[in-house]
Design goal:
472 residues, Rossmann fold, 15 strands, 46% helix, globular
């Protein structure tokens, strides 16, 4: 399997190279050169397999020629052994034809664990094989950071620098990152928004001399390996409900577009999916694009669902690449226009291509609390604000009449309610407790540095910290 950049000007890479590179040298994102395909009989043959067994079948084509089946199986088994539910991603029924996929049973209680517990092991394997070290630089709106830190802590070949927007993540999210005292973990609270953090990471990668000096790599969903591992739970949940012989649709609370893009990848691989339903909060750039055909950036608004407080959804570029029939030069031109003018019309044919598969719905903070309350009263379940947005989007899609009534509709629950206890308590009167292993989280000491939104300051910080680590 070879990988190509969405902007067409970077060299094609192998899986190992893509894992370590993260972002393409032309500023694009890597995608498979071709989509591996499963027939309906291939998918039926996965019925009854465990999560880890399905994971091996689904991801094997993407690592072919780079990692042996035996090594890959060992990494997969180890990654998901740490999850707190035997199904890894269990399903719960909310209503007739409506289901909730719980993606939060990993070590840090968020869907990012489903990918990063494997990605950390992939880094270990590839770096040991190549005798190399990497410096991982990541931006987080709350959950990626803690999942990456948990996956990569105390590893000799990896230094981890995570940037989060100061004051724009929940207290639990922050503490999960800043209370890890491993010497290879470096937390940065950046004065700005998540988009500022993400732009900072991209700027660091754009400095080729710095990128090569420190062997930069990424754990954000700009790294293809993250997307690859997320494809798996779309297969497992669909199989549980009768795929490929039953119609399935997915509703996904969406910020950086990586999670829902993984569903699109599953569709491209042959999993029959009727619709992809995007749930947005007040930062509704994707929903507005679905409504109008124009991508227009606004200022970032702080909400109860901070992991979705994003205006630049990086992974949308991967879908855009397919909508441009994989013409990287046209994608590069369109993205340059968007960044320069904060607004772009990709053209009617692209909008038509995307709208054939995707719907978008928005939900404000008051509505989010109403959904959390309603779900608790109806089912007894506590859900977090992000999951509430996805559930509401699913409900509206059902009411729209565009879905076949027999379609099984799966809403993705992306975080444990205890990660956002204040919002859940306001909505239900119940304060959700952390699991026992994290019960003392809020009392743990913190290690974090505050930096201005300035590329020079961040580069100097990296240089100083890495020099100190080398001298230690």
């Amino acid at each position: 399997m070879r990988y190509i950049s969405t902007r067409g000007a970077a060299p094609d890479l192998s899986f190992e190279q893509v894992l370590l590179a993260g972002l393409a040298r032309d500023g694009g994102l890597y995608v498979p050169e071709t989509w591996p395909k499963f027939s309906k009989s291939d998918i039926r043959a996965m019925r009854g397999l465990s999560y880890s067994e399905v994971a091996l079948e689904v991801m094997r084509p993407y690592v072919a020629g780079a990692i042996s089946d035996a090594d890959f199986k060992a990494m997969i088994d180890a990654a998901y052994a740490s999850f707190g539910h035997p199904a890894v991603v269990p399903l719960k029924q909310l209503d007739h034809g409506m289901f909730l996929a719980e993606l939060f049973h990993g070590p840090t209680l968020a869907f990012k664990d489903c990918a990063l517990q494997l990605v950390g092991r992939l880094f270990d394997h590839v770096l040991a094989k190549r005798g190399e070290k990497v410096t991982i630089v990541g931006a987080t709106s709350g959950d990626t950071g803690s999942a990456a830190i948990e996956a990569c802590r105390d590893r000799e070949a990896i230094e981890v620098f995570i940037l989060h927007p100061k004051g724009r993540v929940s207290d639990v999210q922050r503490k999960q990152m800043t209370s890890v005292m491993a010497p290879n973990i470096h937390n940065i609270a950046l004065e700005g928004t998540f988009d500022d953090c993400q732009d900072m990471v991209k700027a660091l990668f754009a400095d080729e001399a710095l990128r090569d000096r420190y062997n930069l790599s990424a754990v954000n969903s700009i790294n293809w390996a993250r997307i690859m591992a997320q494809i798996v739970y779309y297969f497992t949940t669909a199989l549980t409900l009768g795929a490929p012989d039953r119609k399935i649709a997915f509703a996904v609370p969406t910020g950086n577009f990586g999670n829902v893009f993984a569903a699109y990848c599953a569709y491209q691989m042959g999993l029959p999916i009727e619709r992809f339903i995007i749930g947005s909060n007040a930062n509704d750039i994707l929903t507005r694009y679905m409504d109008t055909g124009r991508m227009e950036m606004n200022d970032v608004t702080a909400t109860l669902s901070p992991s979705m407080d994003i205006q630049i959804s990086s992974n949308f570029e991967r879908l855009l690449f397919d909508s441009y029939k994989r013409d990287g030069a046209k994608v590069a031109k369109a993205m340059d226009t968007f960044r320069a003018k904060r607004s772009v019309d990709f053209g009617k044919s692209r909008w038509t291509f995307i709208r054939k598969m995707f719907d978008g719905y928005r939900l404000g903070d008051n509505g989010t609390k109403e959904v959390i309350s309603a779900i608790h009263k109806m089912t007894g379940e506590l859900i977090d604000p992000h999951s509430a947005v996805g559930i509401e989007a699913a409900g509206r899609a059902r009411l729209s009449g565009e879905l076949d009534p027999d379609t099984a509709l799966i809403a993705m629950a992306t975080a444990h309610p205890a990660k956002f206890p204040k919002a859940v308590e306001e909505a239900t009167g119940i304060y959700p407790n952390l699991p026992p292993r994290l019960a003392d989280l809020m009392d743990r000491p913190e290690k974090c540095d505050l930096l201005p939104n300035d590329i020079g300051a961040v580069k100097a910080y990296l240089a100083t910290r890495l020099a100190q680590r080398k001298a230690a």
